[in-house]
Every structure is written in structure tokens, then in C-alpha cells.
Amino acid sequence: MNKFMIVMMHTYRSKIKSKPFMISTLITIALLFVVTNMNEITKMFGGEEEAKVGVIDKTGNTLPVLKEQLKAAGADIKAEAFSKSEKDAESSVLNGELDGLLILDKDTSGMITGSYKAEDVTNQDLITDIEMALQQIKNKSAAESIGLNQEQLAAIYLPVTFEKDSLSDTAKSEEEAAQVYILVYVLLFFMYMSVMMYGSMIAVEVATEKSSRVMEILISSVSPVKQMFGKIFGIVLIALTQLAVFVAAGITSAKLNERLSGSESIIKEFKLNEIPIPLIIYALLFFVLGFFLYATLFAMLGSLITRVEEVNNIMTPVVILIVAAFMIAMYGRENPESGFVAGASYFPFFTPMLMLLRVGMLSLPVWEVALGIGVLVGAILLFAVIGARVYRGGVLMYGNAPSLKLFKQAILLSKQEKKNTTG
To answer: What is the CATH number for 65?
Structure first.
């Protein structure tokens, strides 16, 4: 146990102090702060200036109404009459004096029409604001033409009363579903990225030690099995440490945004601070178990290769499994009750993501969750036994190109090495 702890803590300390780990962590934290406070940062750099739009009003009376509609909608658009010709207005747009040109007219039925011209039409927010304002003007004009007053028009556009009630006592409310939706999405994405990043880290470390012949020295003092699980546990600690840092940074960033903007943070808006504790426990449980399953495979495969350059080739099957699980989970977010998603959630390589999804989005009976955890634990134990044997023999194999035959050779070499040790 002492040697196992030494390997685990050595792996943890060496990785957590490494420059790549620190740089990637700092970059991610910086991105969290930038994304969360994007509106405030944009304001600091003057990114919220009003768009200046020249208007040629051929109707003679639509521009004042348009200004009122834009102001009521809170659009950052300054619409001003342009007295010169349309050609001169287009030149003003091209030389940057105007952000756009709006030509107002009427069709044969007397309804308002608009034609917007700009150097490019990629600013969809500006175009949508103008289009919505013109739509409101048209609706009002159409209502007046058939004799409707403002109260009658407002009644037409009043949203329908639509209530949603769950008949099941265990069903989640709309608010709870929104909370879970965000949590599940974040955790699925983090689980996917963690397995991809940290799993390959295990394989690369094993391959690096083999290529430098350090492995021959290590196995003389620490058994290969303790090395494998020491590395896995050490990197699990790294992943949990980084997760804790990201959560702390996210909460701090949300609170900073709340203070700067004066509005509710996303935490309070979606009541993420009220997420049920059992769901958080399930999330951590499936994350750790899923990571152990994939990490065991990565360590086993890493022991079969000699050069770091071969890591990507031999990792491809595992990566395909991770990507497939993630894609099914993305589908399952919209269709959590699908029979396909339910069945796939009991396939060990998909269980961590899909069972977490189903636990979060549905009210599953306890036995289903227990069965999923049991399947996952059983698979981890099975692959741990197989992985330990392959690892024991694989770390002693050099100069072989990656292939399926190496599994049999590694297991045979493991049995021989074990006999020599016990003998």
C-alpha cells in the first residue's frame, strides 16, 4: 500500500506542477471569466455603440413611428432621415458614414414594405430589430384598416394561457428540468473532455517510461499492478482537482457578473444553487466510475506500445467509444425516455454518460440506477483484472508494432513474470 501511495502521489504532484497543466487551467479559467462577463467587457471597449441607419421614407410618415418602435424595443439603432438620393446613401454606407440604408415604401395594398442595404448583411441582430419594428407597424396599420382598436389588437396578440401539470408525484417540474438540463450538459461535456485528455495522459506517460527504459527500473521496486492503479488514482485526483478549480472559478465569475451588471447571475436565474444533493452525488459517482473504466483501458493499451508516437493509433477504438457515448447522450438530452437510450445506458462504456443523463432528466426507480452502477462496477473489476495482467506483461515488451496479437503475448508474459516472481 505504501508503494501504491508513492506512485499515486508522485503522479499527482508531477502532473499538477507541470506547465501544460497550469497553462491549460489558467486559460480555461480566463475563458470562463470572459464568456460569463462578455457583455460587460464589450461595453468597456465601446462595443455597444448605436448603429447609424439612414432612412429614405417614401411613405412620408413611417419614420417617426419606426423611431418610437425601435425605442420601445430598446434597440441600439439611430434611424435618421436621409435627404439625398439613394445612390448617395449607398456611397455613405460603403465609406462608413452609415451602418445601413433602409428604404420605406408601400405595396399595392397600402401595406408598409422595407428594403435594407448594408456593406454586408451579417449583423443579424440589427436587421432583426428593424424587421420586428416594421412588423409591429404593419400589424397596427392592418388592424386600423379593418377597424380594430388598440385593445382589440392587444387581445389578439395576448399569449394563450397554457398550464402544464405533471400527474406523477415523482415527475420533475419545468424549473427542475431546466436545472438538470444545464447540469447534465456541463457534466457530460466535462466527462467527455476529461476522459479524452486524462486518459491519453496515462497512455503517454506509460509509453514515455517504456521508451526511456525507466520501466525496467520501476518494476524491480514496484509491481506493475501497483504502478497501473497508482497512476490511475493519481490522475483521477488531478481531474477532480481541476474540476473543483473550474467550479470555484465559474461561481466567482457568475458573482462578478452579477455585481457588474446588476442583474441576477445564471446561478440564481436557473436556481443552480438548489440542485438536489443526490443528483450531485450521482454526477460525481458516475464521473469517477466512468473515468476508472476508461483509464484502465488507456493504461492497458499504453503498456502495449513502445513509442509515444504510437499512442494515437492504438487509442482510436477507445476514442470512438467515447465519442459514440457523447453523441448518444446529446441525442438523449432531447429524448431521455427513448428505449434506445435506456438500453444503451446498460452498456458499460456508455453507462457513465447515459445513466447520469437518465438519472438527471427522469425519475428512475432505484433498482434501475443500482443496476447501472452494478454493471459499471462489474465492468471496471473485469477490465481491472484483465488490464492488470496485460499491463504486467505489456510493460516488458519492446519493439513490437501495435496489434491485437500483443494482448495474448502480454498475458503470457505476465504469467511467466508472475511465476518467476513467486518462484
So the answer is: 3.40.190.10
